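COURSE: Structural Biology Practicum
ASSIGNMENT: Worksheet 4, Part C
STUDENT ID: 0417
INSTRUCTIONS: Below are two proteins. For each, the amino acid sequence is given first, followed by its structure token string. Answer the questions at the end about the second protein only.

PROTEIN I
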Amino acid sequence: MIRLATPEDQKALIAIAEAVGLFSPPELEELGGMLAEYFDGNPDSDSCWITYDDCEPRGVAYYAPEPYAEGAWNLYFIAVHPDYQGKGIGGAMLDYVEKILTERGDRLLLVETSGLPGFERTREFYRKQGYEEEARIREFYKAGDDKIIFRKAL
């Protein structure tokens, strides 16, 4: 079941991100701060954290509108616990986000990820979901680590 995340989910959502193994300690700390801000009632007015819950959270996603762009959104974060990957959870969460945005009349969803070899599975996931590579900013995150932006019209 996909549902809105609640404050009680915070610890489990961070544990999912940590278990994936793609995020550094500072990135995990930033994630914790984003969740805390969201649940403290200070989120971007339209931003949304969701979770895939099967007795407990197994996946998490965060999306928010692109400032100063009409109908354009960013999927800033999506992760599925490694024990549950390959079971359609990530695709279901992405479909859920796309459906919500389409029903709102929005037109575009952007996703960014790293160009490092360890993120190839992530990039392949987006391609399988119908996303196209729109841009690559060389050495954005650090030397040798490109930022790759995927795009899907809704």
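PROTEIN II
(use this one for the questions)
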Amino acid sequence: MPVLSDRHLLGLEGVPQKDIQLILDTAFTFREILDRPVPKVPTLQGQTVLNFFYESSTRTRMSFELAEKRLSADSINFSKSGSSASKGETLRDTIRTIEAMKIDTVVIRHSAPGSAKLMTGFIDSNIINAGDGAHEHPTQALLDMMTLQEHLNLKSLKGLKVAILGDIKHSRVARSNIHGLKTMGAEVMICGPSTLLPYEAEALGVHISTDINEALEFADVLNILRIQLERQKGGLFPSLREYRKFFGITMKRLNGYKKKFTIMHPGPLNRGVEIDADVADSEHSVILNQVLNGVAVRMAVLVLLTQTHNKGKNRSDG
């Protein structure tokens, strides 16, 4: 059985196309399992997964927990609140204490960019990055790509034009999507107020615009990002009303173009700000498909990383 190039998933930057395709192909297999009357398989029976969340999360955490249960893995949930970390214990000491309990895989979300990679240096478990600050969120980008393949009935994303709209500067979802989509041959544009575009935007190798109309002319797919007020340290635009006026995706704005857009959003949605309710709930929206496919993608990642790790141990033992 094919395995991945690495036993960790820290981001999509530098991940080979064959690895991304293997994850997507495996996810489609697990997607079929989710449609069964009893959507559960014993693939990871005996494996223990730690959901290690230093930041609040609803969708990602629940998606990983459900993926683990569907694979028959044992899972442990950690949150910073109420733990020894809230008493001043370091990340290194916390995780090494937990790993001493024989953890096979750690799913980590942390506010510090690079925290997932740092963790690989002092524990032997497989590491899955569930979001490290504004750096990367690889499983979200993978489920987005899976959803596009499914919805548009595509075997390849080559040539597909995707516009990522909104708060790019603070978005780990945007960065993972850019790396993943480019690797798979799609064309990417980022669009938002100049104050919400990253300093390194040109180095990302994407089209850049501060004009929503230019992005709509360009794109087949709109991946609309939430305005992350909790990560902003200053007034980066005059008001939410002003943002909606110039960058909000409304049905009136979309109806000005003679094409059918595919509408995506990683959630949670700020309805009436970056996206209107009638757009989010329209026939062109695949937002709920993204949620379901997220479980399948995370099942695929958990299984493939375990197989990759086990194959590496078998080689070393031999």
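ANSWER KEY EXCERPT:
Q1: Residues 17-137+291-310 form a domain with the Rossmann fold fold (CATH 3.40.50.1370).
Q2: The chain has two domains: 17-137+291-310, 139-287.
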